[in-house]
Design goal:
- The longest helix has 19 residues, at about 280-295.
- A hairpin with a 2-residue loop joins β4 and β5.
- About 55% of the residues lie in helices and about 10% in strands.
- It has a 5-stranded parallel sheet with strand order 2-3-6-1-7, sandwiched between helices. A two-stranded antiparallel sheet has the order 4-5.
- The chain folds into 3 domains: about 5-160, 3-Layer(aba) Sandwich (Rossmann fold); about 175-245, Helicase, Ruva Protein, domain 3 (Orthogonal Bundle), CATH 1.10.8.60; about 250-335.
- The termini are far apart.
- The protein is of the alpha/beta class.
- It is built from 16 helices and 9 strands.
Length: about 325
C-alpha cells in the first residue's frame, strides 16, 4: 500500500475512513504520539474502555500472537476497534542474540532481548486484517530486510515521521533543516498566542540541527519560561539555553523552600530534560524534607514524608509517569 503523510492520515480520520493497518515509524516521538491519539478518536469516548487498547511490545506478555488476538477481537457496541502497539521496534528491529562480545547501538546483546518468535502471526494478519479493527504499529525504526516488515510494507499504510530529516537516510542540507525548525518554532509560538523575535527562533533552530527531540524540548522550555509574555525575545531564548547547560542541582528544592510552585515545576522540567534521574531527584526532595523543612516548619513534615513514601512506591511499581509523579509531589511540598 502507498505511504501517507501525517496530514493525509488526519484527513482520513476526519472523514472516518481509516485504513486497517498503519505503521508509523520515525524519531519524532511527539508527532507519532499525536497521530496515534488522532486515530484513537475513531472510537467514541464512552466506548474506549472496550474498543481502544494500547499494547507495549517491550512488555514480556506482548507477542505478535497476542497483538493479533487483540486485533481480531470484534468491537463491542461500536462499529470499530483501535489497537495501538507502542515500542514495536522490539518486533520490527530487534536486538539479535549473540555472544557477549557482539555490540549494537545500545550495548551488549542480551538473550531476553530477542523478539518473540511467532512473527508469522503478524505477517498473516497483515495479509488478512480484521476489517472492523484499525491496528496502529509505532516503532522508532524497522529492519527493512525482515519478512514481517515486507508484509507490512505491502499491505499496511506506512507513515514516516522523521522530524527535520524528512526520511531516515536522507542527506539533509543544514540550511533546509534550519528553515524547517525555524518555521516550526514560529508556528508553535503563534499557536500559543505569542510572538517571537526572529533571532530567538533562529537560535533554537540552529541549536537543534536535525534533532527534532532537542528542538521540541527547547521549545517546550522556552514557552514555559516565557509564559504570559506577549513577545519572546532572544534574551529569553538565551536564558533557556543557558539554564539547561548550567542547571543548578538544587534549584528544585530552593524553589520549594520559597513555596514557589511555578518555578519549582519549571526547574523540575529543566532537570529531567537535561538527563536528571527521577530517583536522584526524589532523594534530593527527601533530604530537603528531613533537613530543611524539619527545621523551618516541622508541622508540615508528617504529610511531606507520607507524600514522599507514596511517590517512592509509585515510582518503584511503575504506578505512573515519573515526571507526573514528581510534579505532583513538588506541588504538594510547595503548599504552605
Amino acid at each position: 500500500m502507498p505511504s501517507a503523510t501525517p496530514a493525509a492520515v488526519r484527513k482520513q480520520i476526519a472523514e472516518h475512513k481509516p485504513e486497517p493497518i498503519y505503521l508509523i515509524v520515525g524519531d519524532d516521538e511527539a508527532e507519532m504520539s499525536e497521530l496515534a491519539a488522532a486515530i484513537s478518536t475513531i472510537v467514541e469516548d464512552e466506548l474506549r474502555a472496550f474498543n481502544l487498547e494500547r499494547l507495549y511490545a517491550n512488555d514480556k506478555g506482548v507477542t505478535p500472537s497476542s497483538i493479533v488476538q487483540s486485533a481480531r477481537t470484534l468491537p463491542m457496541l461500536g462499529d470499530r476497534r483501535v489497537v495501538i502497539v507502542l515500542r514495536a521496534e522490539r518486533i520490527l528491529k530487534p536486538k539479535r542474540r549473540g555472544k557477549a562480545s557482539e555490540i549494537d547501538d545500545d550495548g551488549p546483546l542480551a538473550a531476553d532481548e530477542e523478539p518473540p518468535g511467532d512473527l508469522d502471526a503478524l505477517e498473516e494478519y497483515a495479509m488478512r486484517p480484521e476489517p472492523r479493527t484499525t491496528l496502529v504499529v509505532i516503532a522508532a525504526d524497522v529492519d527493512r530486510q525482515r519478512k514481517v516488515y515486507k508484509a507490512l510494507q505491502k499491505h499496511a499504510t506506512i507513515v514516516e515521521c522523521w522530524g527535520l530529516r524528512g526520511s531516515k537516510d536522507a542527506r539533509v542540507d543544514p540550511r533546509d533543516a534550519m528553515r524547517a525548525a525555524d518555521a516550526m518554532v514560529r508556528q508553535a509560538v503563534t499557536a500559543a498566542g505569542q510572538h517571537i523575535e526572529p533571532a530567538a527562533s533562529r537560535l533554537l533552530a540552529a541549536r537543534a540541527g536535525t534533532d527534532i527531540s532537542r528542538l521540541r524540548a527547547d521549545l517546550e522550555r522556552l514557552l514555559l519560561f516565557a509564559a504570559g509574555q506577549a513577545v519572546i525575545t532572544v534574551q529569553d531564548a538565551q536564558e533557556v539555553v543557558s539554564l539547561e547547560t548550567a542547571q543548578d542541582d538544587w534549584a528544585v528544592t530552593n524553589a520549594i523552600g520559597r513555596s514557589d510552585a511555578r518555578d519549582a515545576l519549571r526547574q523540575l522540567a529543566l532537570a529531567l530534560e537535561s538527563g536528571g534521574v527521577p530517583y536522584q531527584i526524589l532523594g534530593q526532595l527527601a533530604w530537603y524534607v528531613r533537613e530543611k523543612m524539619a527545621a523551618m516548619n516541622p508541622n508540615r513534615v508528617p504529610a511531606a514524608i507520607e507524600a514522599l513514601f507514596r511517590t517512592d512506591l509509585e515510582l518503584k511499581s511503575s504506578g505512573g509517569d515519573p515526571r507526573v509523579l514528581l510534579e505532583r509531589l513538588v506541588v504538594e511540598l510547595c503548599r504552605r
